[in-house]
Amino acid sequence: MQNKPDIILSAADVATIERYIEKMPHANEQVLALENELARAKVVKHQDLPSDVIAMGSRVTFRIAELNKEFAKTLCYPEQLANHEDGISIFAPVGSALIGLRVGQSIDWPLNGSVRHVEIIAVSPAPVAA
């Protein structure tokens, strides 16, 4: 597996994701991988998060090289999936691979028993609540 790229997360996203993890009855391989991502991230205040970094609520266009296919998804928490036609949970394998990456970065990530190369093409920040 390649060296993992630098990632940036907002302190608010880290705190919320950690609360979800604490409520889980057991940690599976996917949750452990997400915890490792949180641990290695540079954490900043939400207002200091660059606009091209994937945060919770971001709409992201990414490519899985092995499938030669692009996807456009909104990264969200499990209970928000019904609110997004294109939602992907932070606890899905690709969802946890996306968090904290920015446009132009890529990561090798375990997916369905193999390793997939995920490349970030575009990011639209989460809409600001009125």
Key attributes of the depicted protein:
alpha/beta, 5-stranded mixed sheet, 3 helices, 24% helix, two-stranded parallel sheet, 130 residues
Structure explained in plain terms:
This protein is α/β, with parallel strands linked by helices. The strands form 2 sheets. It has a 5-stranded mixed sheet with strand order 5-4-3-7-6. A two-stranded parallel ribbon has the order 1-2. It has helices at residues 11-23, 29-40, 93-98, and strands spanning 8-10, 42-44, 59-64, 69-76, 87-89, 106-111, 114-124.
Shape descriptor = globular
What is the N-to-C succession of helices and strands? EHHEEEEHEE
> Averaging pLDDT over every residue, what do you get?
89
Total E-strand runs: 7
Give, in spatial order, the strands making up the sheet with the most strands: 5-4-3-7-6
Return Rg in Å: 14 Å
| Strand portion | 25-35%
Count of alpha and pi helical runs? 3
The low-pLDDT segments are none
